[in-house]
Amino acid sequence: MNILLIGSGGREHALALKLVASPLCDKLYALPGNPGIGEIAENIGGISITDGEGILRFSREKEIGLVVVGSELPLTEGVADVLAAGGVKVFGPSKAAAELEGSKVFAKKIMSKYRIPTAHCEVFNDASRARVYVRQMGAPIVVKADGLAAGKGVVVARTVDEALAAVDSMLEEKTFGEAGARVVMEEFLEGEEASVLAFTDGETVKAMIPSQDHKCIFDGDKGPNTGGMGTYAPAPVVTPEVMERVRQEILEPLIAGMKQEGKPYKGCLYAGLMITKKGPKVIEFNCRFGDPETQVVLPLLDSDLVEVMLACVDGKLAETPVKWSADAAVCVVMAAKGYPGSYAKGDAITGLAEAKAIGCNICEAGTALKDGVKVTNGGRVLGVVGRAGDIKSAAAKAYEGVERISFKDAYYRRDIAHRALERLEQ
Question: Are 395 and 330 in contact (CB under 8 A)?
Fold first, then answer.
């Protein structure tokens, strides 16, 4: 069948690599794609990723058998609804179900109603009231923009002044526009973060291998949050016992609750978790594959991704095996100097073929072609993925790949997977 992938980042490149590996995939199109994806798929321009009708017309013209929505914006804008109504199979939740990511307030209400463990919170749209609350509660405290903010709308404030500054930024200065018109003030959870992605057809839930992201820009988890500087899987903090609790206390109650709400959820569910002393608690839900978690989770999937996605669309996940490798994978993000602030673009990238030659996956996130030369075109430029029999070997391979790649002022963290490695040394 012909498949259409919507998105342009490193996550979509990881998806593309797995989709084209399926014997069910005759041809892969990507909207809009990126230069790396363009090496294995046909990139499509001229259609907005939120133009449901335009995507539907294209899907009919090219006889698309499955549309895979990689990024969150088309889902929260209802693209999946338009495609499904037009008779096109689409992997991704409806607009109503995608509100889990589109509104943190909505997600909190669902978690409260169905007793899914999460941090206590209060919601504000008035800056003065929010400031009073911050001073009453003290720090540390977490300040979140209600809507979509490209992974940057969360501030973990270690001091009252930091929290007040975040409130002013979101509610007074409108840093995130309408996405920050309401803020969620959350209690600070102690523990270790992890990500659990899951396939679901609205009834059955099958979790993927747990992973752990590295949000902060600097080594030692210092500095401002980013979209993710690297990740690894499996994450040993999510023991089999913890994973069972995630399934019983979080994933299954949420999917059952969404069905009861009349908003059945199909596709990939992302649960961002804090593993506390009392067990796993939800930090956030996302309505799609994570970035850069996808870059390490999908290489470990032994089953046919297209077959699993079709099972989710058709309500047949319960009878479809989902098998995983016992290997480990590590992704190191190479970023442009200055990210997550301002950064340069247009610098030539070299060494990609050399990194691929030693067995690394290269997931392009912010690249472009200029006169036939691949150049930087974003803050997070590349994800370099190493796979091996264990975390230590996978990390070594990823960094070996990073050393072969070069562009002006390239920056990357040198401690990706440090928590897992520390556990191995204990």
Answer: yes
List, for residues 325-363, the tens digit of each pLDDT value: 999 999 999 999 999 999 999 999 999 999 999 999 999
- Number of Cβ within 10 Å of residue 229's Cβ equals 30
What's the rounded Cα separation, in Å, for the pair 98 and 44? 25
Nearest 5°: phi and psi at 196?
-125, 115
pLDDT tens, 6-59?
999 999 999 999 999 999 999 999 999 999 999 999 999 999 999 999 999 999
C-alpha neighbours within 13 Å on the C-beta side of residue 215: 15
Distance CA 335, CA 256 (A): 40
Hey, what are 373's tokens?
């030369």
Q: Is 379 exposed, middle or buried (0-12, 13-18, 19+ CB in 10 A)?
A: buried
d(CA 280, CA 243) in angstroms, rounded, equals: 9
pLDDT single digits (tens) 171-183: 988 989 888 889 9
Question: Do 64 and 38 meet the contact criterion of CB atoms below 8 Å apart?
Answer: no
Residue 129 has which token pair?
Answer: 């009231």
Closest listed residue to residue 199, CA positions, set 75, 321, 111, 116? 321
User: What confidence category does residue 424 fall into, taking pLDDT thresholds of 50, 70 and 90?
Assistant: confident
Q: What is the pTM of this model?
A: 0.93
